[in-house]
Amino acid sequence: MSGIVFFATEQHDAVVEFYTDRVGAEVWLEQVDCTILDFGGFRFGFCDRDHTDDCGILTFVSESKLDVDEMYDALVDVARDSPHENDTYGIYQFFADDPDGRAAEFQVFLD
C-alpha cells in the first residue's frame, strides 16, 4: 500500500514546474485538473483550484548531507535558511518556499 498527499493550488503550472524542474520530481500521473508527482517513492499532487492549500510541509529525505547541500545550491533563491544540523531531531536540513509559499524541507537523518 502507498499514499498520495494532495494540495489545491491557484498556480498549478508554476508549482508543478518548481517540483519537476528545480527539485527533480517526476510526473507520475496527469489527471484532468491534477498532477501527481513522484520523488523517490514520495507521491504528492497538485490540483488546479480557486484556492490554495499552503499549510503543511513537504519533506524530502536525502541520503547524504551532500545531497541536501546540492539541493540548497539549486534553491538558494527561495531558501528560508541555509543547511544546518538540528540536534533536536538528529537531522541536517533547510527549508525553502515553493511558488505557493508552501514550506518544502530538505533533510537527511544523521547517524
TrEMBL record:
It comes from the Archaea. This is VOC family protein. The lineage of its organism: Archaea, Methanobacteriati, Methanobacteriota, Stenosarchaea group, Halobacteria.
